[in-house]
Specification:
CATH architecture of the largest domain: 3-Layer(aba) Sandwich
Order of helices and strands: HHHHHEEHEHEHEEHEHEE
CATH class of the largest domain: Alpha Beta
Strand order of the largest sheet: 5-4-3-6-7-9-8
Mean pLDDT: 92
Structural class: alpha/beta
Strand content: 15-25%
Radius of gyration: 21 Å
Distance between the termini: 71 Å
Number of helices: 10
Largest sheet: 7 strands, mixed
Oligomer: single chain
Number of domains: 2
Shape: elongated
Low-confidence stretches: none
CATH topology of the largest domain: Rossmann fold
């Protein structure tokens, strides 16, 4: 069996073409080498790789994410270790990182990423802004273990803390200049949940309307932000109006949303008023 034969077989089973290519490269021990695969599609597939590829395909057909099968996911140029302890980082979340970097330059800041999971947001910010002090918070010890592994692999000095959002997070000499979060925002019983069954449900579901955790974060952020500091939140594709209302009701100003590459309002944020304003 050639590499091309293996791919045709996988497509015939119903796999997406890109997924099949990535899984085949994973079975061959050649991640991220799609150009190599195109140039060697007539090569014979070793039996061990054929068996590994078949097993990966079967797991993918049950809905298991490709990132879990390969143990890796690229996010904002970083190669992250991921597994079933954390959500798979999505390209949509890069919108949140880009917005944070637009707001603040290289000057030293205190920044916290709430619900860090694999550490994707915190690590991307720390990589881009070495002078920032970046905290990474998660309620799950298992998730923090993944974030710590990624921080060590990448040599990025984020500060890990286990806790429920901002509870118990201590910052010396003042408050946070920036709070960012990709919290749970899917409503209980949402029709999209079955497709996400392999990912940690506690990182996905947030009450009857999907906004329970965003409400908690907003309340806590008012107490933890420095005057003029920003809170940036990722949310669902139909939640921008509701999140903006929550931020405005909490007393934040400059409330606005940002769209992802598909043009969908994916993140909303607001600024704590400066003292005397």
């Amino acid at each position: 069996m050639t590499l091309a034969d293996a791919l045709r077989l996988a497509l015939g089973q119903g796999l997406d073409a890109l997924d099949a290519q990535l899984l085949l490269l994973g079975a061959l021990g050649r991640p991220h080498q799609r150009a190599w695969l195109r140039a060697h599609d007539t090569d014979a597939l070793p039996l061990s790789a054929e068996q590994a590829f078949a097993a990966l395909c079967q797991r993918r057909l049950t809905g298991e994410p490709v990132a879990y099968l390969l143990g890796r996911k690229e996010f904002f140029g970083l190669d992250l270790v991921v597994d079933a302890r954390v959500l798979v980082p999505r390209p949509d979340t890069e919108t949140l990182v880009e917005w944070a970097l637009e707001l603040h330059g290289p000057q030293p800041l205190k920044v916290v990423d709430l619900g860090t999971g694999s550490g994707a947001i915190a690590l991307a910010l720390q990589q881009a802004r070495p002078a920032w002090q970046v905290w990474a918070v998660d309620a799950s010890a298992q998730a923090l273990a993944v974030a710590q592994l990624n921080a060590q692999r990448l040599g990025l000095p984020i500060r890990l803390h286990q806790g429920n959002w901002l509870e118990g997070v201590e910052v010396a000499e003042g408050r946070f200049d920036l709070i960012v979060s990709n919290p749970p925002y899917i409503a209980e019983g949402d029709v999209h949940l079955p497709a996400l069954a392999h990912e940690p449900q506690s990182a996905l579901i947030s009450g009857a309307d999907g906004l329970d955790d965003i409400r908690r974060i907003t309340v806590q952020a008012i107490e933890q932000l420095a005057p003029g500091g920003w809170l940036l939140l990722e949310h669902g594709h139909e939640q921008a109006g509701a999140v903006q209302s929550l931020l405005s009701q909490a007393g934040m100003v400059s409330v606005q949303s940002r769209a992802d590459l598909a043009g969908t309002a994916r993140c909303s944020g607001g600024q704590l008023p400066c003292a005397g304003s």
